[in-house]
Amino acid sequence: MSVQLPPRATPTITDFATLVRQRRSVRDFSSAAVNLEQVAYLLTAAGEITGDSPHRRAIPSAGGLQTLTIYLAASRVTDLSAGIWRYEADVTSLTEVSLGDPWPALKADAAGLHRVHDAPAAIFLATTAEAAVAKYGERAHRYVQLEAGHCGQ
After folding, report:
1. What is the DSSP letter of 49?
2. Are 125 and 71 in contact (CB under 8 A)?
3. How confident is the model at residue 114 (pLDDT cuts 50, 70, 90)?
């Protein structure tokens, strides 16, 4: 199953300095549902194709390899079934990976996930590092980690 994401809205804060001043990290999450438009905004900001090639994206990637895959664990997102979804940047959609409550399986696999298990949704990053290893050898893991950090910001 695939779900087309709504177009990304224009940000309401246009002054970068204001955005930076207002940024905060949190460790307590609301249990209220989020809507698909909010999720779409975050996913496209993280992985949107910004040029004429799938290798032209908003986040930097060593050698333009784009080794990251973005996943959404959704439990309370309006107009989206609970489950794990893969973000498809080329068609701005979500593809079903598995349906049902995502948290039991994810908690078993991820250290520290107890902080987000009540969140309505969470974004996870995975990497396919083979292309980076072929190009950069031992240094590949550094570049992949930098790419994940850029995406997370």
Report:
1. B
2. yes
3. low
